[in-house]
Amino acid sequence: MDHTLLGFVILYLVLSIGIGLYAATKVHSAADYITAGRSLPMVVVVAMVFATWFGAETVLGIPATFLDENLGGTISDPFGAALALILFGLFFARPLYRMKLLTLGDFFRQRYNRPVEVVISSAIALSYLGWVSAQVVALGLVFNVLSSGAITQAEGVLIGAAVVLLYTLFGGMWSVALTTLVQMTVIVIGLLWISKLVGDMPAVNGIAPVIEHAAAAGKFAFWPPLEWAAIVTFVAGLLTMGLGSIPQQDVFQRSNSGRTETIAVWGTVIGGSLYFLFAAVPIYLTYSATLVDPAMTAALLEEDAQLVLPTFVKTHLPFYAQIVFYGALLSVIMSTASGTLLAPSVTISENIIKEFMPHHRMSAKQLLWITRGVVVVFALLVVVYSLWSLESETSIHEMVANAYKVTLACAFVPLVAGLYWKRATNAGAGLSIALGLVAWIAAEFIAPDAALPPQFAGLIASALGMLAGSLGMQPRPAPVVPSRS
Question: Residue 268 belongs to what H/E stretch?
Answer without folding.
Answer: helix 261-278
